[in-house]
Write a structure and sequence with these properties.
The complex is a heterodimer. Chain A is mostly beta strands. Chain A is built from no helices and 11 strands. In chain A, a hairpin with a 2-residue loop joins strand 7 and strand 8. Chain A starts with a strand and ends with a strand. The relative contact order of chain B is 0.34. Chain B has no helices and 11 strands. Classes of the chains: A mainly beta, B mainly beta. At the A-B interface, strand 5 and strand 10 of A face strand 5 and strand 10 of B.
Chain lengths: 114, 111
C-alpha cells in the first residue's frame, strides 16, 4: 500500500491566489482528516469526513477555507483567497473505523504564502 | 475547550540515557489516548493506542502507561539512541473521531 498521498509537497504562492491541496487516502479507509501544523498552534484538526461526508468542520479557520471529498479516494482543501498567515504544513490523514482509531498521516504539504 | 498538555516541551539527553515525558488530558469523556512519533520532515506515525485505565504498552525500548482517572500518560524510552530523536505527540480521543493533539515533546539524543 502506498500510504496516504498528498500533493503538492511544497507550494509557494502569492497573497490573494487560490490554493488547492490534494489528498488520496489509503484504500478502504472510511475516515479522512485535514490538519494544519504551525509553530504557534501545533497540530490542529480542520475538518474530517466519514464515507465522503463532512462530519465536523468546526476547525476550519474561516470562510476562505473549504474542503471536499467527491469520492472515497480523493479530497481537496482549498484556500481562496490565500493570506500569509495561512503558511503552514497541511497534513491529510486517513483511518478505518474499528482499528483503535489509529490515523495514518500523509507526508504533508508545506504552504508558503508570500 | 479540551486541553492536552505535554511536558517537557523539549528534552536533550545523551545516548544511553533513559527518559520519560508526560501527557495530561481531561479525565472526562475519555475514549482513547494515542502516542505518535514524528521525525523531522516526515509525517506522524502511530506508536500506541491505549483505552483502559492502567494500560501499559511496550514496543522495543519504548513503553507507555495510562491513568484515565487522573488524566495522564507517561512515555518512557529506555537507553535512548540518536535515532529516537523526534517529536512525540499524544492525542486525546473522545470517541467521536476528533482527536486533540498535544504540542509534543521534542527529544534530542546526542551520540
Amino acid at each position: 500500500d502506498a500510504g496516504v498521498i498528498q500533493s503538492p509537497r511544497h507550494e509557494v504562492t502569492e497573497m490573494g491566489q487560490e490554493v488547492t491541496l490534494r489528498c488520496k487516502p489509503i484504500s478502504g479507509h472510511d475516515y479522512l482528516f485535514w490538519y494544519r501544523q504551525t509553530m504557534m498552534r501545533g497540530l490542529e484538526l480542520l475538518i474530517y469526513f466519514n464515507n465522503n461526508v463532512p462530519i465536523d468542520d468546526s476547525g476550519m479557520p474561516e470562510d476562505r477555507f473549504s474542503a471536499k471529498m467527491p469520492n472515497a479516494s480523493f479530497s481537496t482543501l482549498k484556500i481562496q483567497p490565500s493570506e500569509p498567515r495561512d503558511s503552514a504544513v497541511y497534513f491529510c490523514a486517513s483511518m478505518t473505523s474499528g482499528r483503535n482509531n489509529e490515523q495514518f498521516f500523509g507526508p504533508g504539504t508545506r504552504l508558503t504564502v508570500l | 475547550i479540551l486541553n492536552v498538555e505535554q511536558s517537557p516541551q523539549s528534552l536533550h539527553v545523551q545516548e544511553g540515557d533513559s527518559t520519560n515525558f508526560t501527557c495530561s488530558f481531561p479525565s472526562s469523556n475519555f475514549y482513547a489516548l494515542h502516542w505518535y512519533r514524528w521525525e523531522t520532515a516526515k509525517s506522524p506515525e502511530a506508536l500506541f493506542v491505549m483505552t483502559l485505565n492502567g494500560d501499559e504498552k511496550k514496543k522495543g525500548r519504548i513503553s507507555a502507561t495510562l491513568n484515565t482517572k487522573e488524566g495522564y500518560s507517561y512515555l518512557y524510552i529506555k537507553g535512548s539512541q540518536p535515532e529516537d530523536s523526534a517529536t512525540y505527540l499524544c492525542a486525546f480521543d473522545t470517541g467521536g473521531f476528533k482527536t486533540i493533539f498535544g504540542a509534543g515533546t521534542r527529544l534530542f539524543v546526542k551520540a
